[in-house]
Amino acid sequence: MRRADCPAWLARATICISLLGTSISAFALPSFDEVHARWHSSDWVLLARDGEPLQRTRIDHSERRGDWVALADVSPALRQAIVVSEDKRFYEHSGVDWRGAAGAAWANLWNTRTRGASTVTMQLTGLLDDDPQRSGQRSIAQKASQAVNALWLERSWRKDQILEAYLNLVPFRGETIGLSAISMTLFGKAPSGLNDREAAVAAALIRAPNAPYAKVSERACRILRDMQAAGQCANLGGFVQLAFARPAPATLSLTPDDDGLAPHFARRIAAEVHPVAGTRVRSTLDARLQRFARDTLTRTLLELNARAHPRNVQDGAVVVLDNTTGEVRAWVGSSGALSGARDVDAVLALRQAGSTLKPFLYAQAIDERRLTTVSLLDDAPLDLAAGGGLYIPQNYDKDFKGWVSVRTALGSSLNVPAVRTLVMVTPHRFAKTLTALGLPLTQSGDYYGYSLALGSADVTLLALTNAYRALANGGVAGSTADLPRRQAAPGDTATRAAQRVFSADASFIITSVLSDNNARTRTFGFDSPLATRFFSAVKTGTSKDMRDNWTVGFTSRYTVGVWVGNADGTPMWDVSGVSGAAPVWAAIVGYLHRRLPSTPPAAPPGVMQTRVTFENGVEPTRDDWFLRGTQTPLVALAADAGAAVQRVSTRGAVHIGAPTDGTIFALDPDIPASRQRISFERASETSTLSTWRLDGKTLGHASRVPWLPWPGHHLLELVDADGSVADAVHFEVRGAVARTPGTGTGTGTGTGTGTIAAPIASQRPTK
């Protein structure tokens, strides 16, 4: 009997018998909402504080799935391509296409190979049943089971829900599941943007997911003809071949070359919360600010590397913190495609701080009442003994300015005055202050020596920016926050208690200097990117050989840090803080306060403003801020030209130059004990009228006293003529007992020309 002789009712009866005869019953069908709720992508998604997606990071490497795509967000071309290729009568049948099934049943009576007749609804039931045979030929019993389930599904789901679920669950090619994933990986665009040709190729992959490009293009052309778009078949093979050759992106970004808005910050969050596939984590980042910071950094680096005057700079980083909460508002870890090391997070990379540490040094000196902002420091050549040689600091422009006030020295970032200040504060004490601010110093102050004043220590952009936030908050240092406080895990860095490092008074005074454009003119002139139209306090820094370029500062609401340089450490060419990082910083703070005012802080009760006149017109008369009790209406040069400062109080007028507080000395076992000495030295400008006293015993008045070391903890003091202690340090000697013949104790002046024992690194107390 020929097929033509078989009436339609017999074909349908054959299918019915197959359905009734199957032993597979319909499984418990989930609802559309349940299927939607169970779906998750293979990535986790970093969200901005307002919920906007910033970054996708793949976790599940067994399958590649994107976000669930609503049918309304699918291009009409793709919906048409799916229907004409997979189920021409999709909108007419009730789950089973009886006409197609009849033809398939009749073919099964006379052919050995089953002819496909599965509708979209039937295919979906197989996907919902998690059928291991997602593709390929199925037996009549399997198709009968699908038909029964499809009839049940059509009774509880709408047609648009069936098509939407199908497009999200169907495998397309290799590990790629769902329309979102295939659109991003194969065409680099969202499903809403697929045209006729792209839609036909995607639809062709459903029947043959792993077929070669020639077979896929052949089937796609047939689909295009059914879509009445046969003209799109021209050069279709080459188009499919190029699409298949497109490198698969690491994550489902809009394009394979787009690594998202915050790839480095996403890695940081992943290390904190350990998200699973499908997780969406809301962070503290501001999406618009993040995008603006990234684009501004990229644009500035491109301008610096213009062909006419290339500056050999390719990397940069930006971080923006909220002053009050410490929440990170922007985190740009690299310059992206411009960088040769785009995966390196420059926000967390250790780099030399340069002059950015100077505000903290002067804040400490003011807090200790060693200086005021009108104290005069000599910006002149200076040689300091350091280890086996001399430390000779110089200014950035290789010029010296003579006598300058602290305000001018800090505002114009002069190096020699900063080193003179560190001689007073001592490297050891300054290093402890920097550590309290959260800067990751790995050595004691004695290790860095006087170069610490000029930023020889390595810091990260995040830690440095957060240290400036302490100045913005009146001297109180706190931790940063990557997640909203309600999401932070107990005991993480966001919950640490704040610590006061500087007084509110000293912080206010330093802020008044960093916001004073007049104080910057000796180095930067009146018109520089540092001069904003609203309140801002800012400092630049450049490390040795122009390897690092910094600009860090704050407004009344935000603290912004910018680093520019090369990740591989190669020097830039003629790029300073004001020409490299400063334009980025100025653009970002301008963006932050385009509508939000930034006002200067109110003066705390512990400061007062006084009119100050400088003798001989060293600097113009001005109003300046002082700690109460240190105000000076007239500033005159000391009669002794060698005096480094105009002192402001009894405390600090006489002080110890060496050893520094907390030093640990180790006796050298290879040197005879009687030949070892430790030198007690006054600071260069300290009067010799004071008396040395060690552990309560007087040692004399000499400027330098060589002392025979004795193991143990010791207290060294300088005592004024009235018996008051002007300065004191604690130090420790470790090792064998050192004695000279006829000496009963280790306390004595000694007269030999012995060798001073080399100090080992001081140990910082744990906090």
Chain-wise SSE layout:
Blueprint: H1 8-21, H2 32-38, E1 43-47, E2 53-58, E3 64-65, H3 76-86, H4 98-110, H5 120-128, H6 140-156, H7 159-169, E4 171-173, E5 176-177, H8 179-187, H9 196-207, H10 213-226, H11 236-245, H12 263-273, E6 280-282, H13 287-304, E7 315-322, E8 328-332, E9 351-352, H14 358-367, E10 376-379, E11 384-386, E12 389-391, E13 402-405, H15 406-411, H16 415-425, H17 427-436, H18 445-448, E14 458-459, H19 461-472, E15 476-477, E16 499-500, H20 504-514, H21 521-524, E17 537-542, E18 548-554, E19 558-565, H22 582-592, E20 607-614, E21 622-627, E22 634-635, E23 656-658, E24 664-666, E25 676-682, E26 691-694, E27 697-700, E28 704-707, E29 712-719, E30 725-734, E31 755-756, E32 759-760
Parallel strand pairs: 1-6, 3-5, 20-22, 24-30, 25-31
Antiparallel strand pairs: 1-2, 4-5, 7-8, 7-19, 9-14, 10-13, 11-12, 15-16, 17-18, 18-19, 20-21, 23-25, 24-32, 25-28, 26-27, 26-29, 29-30
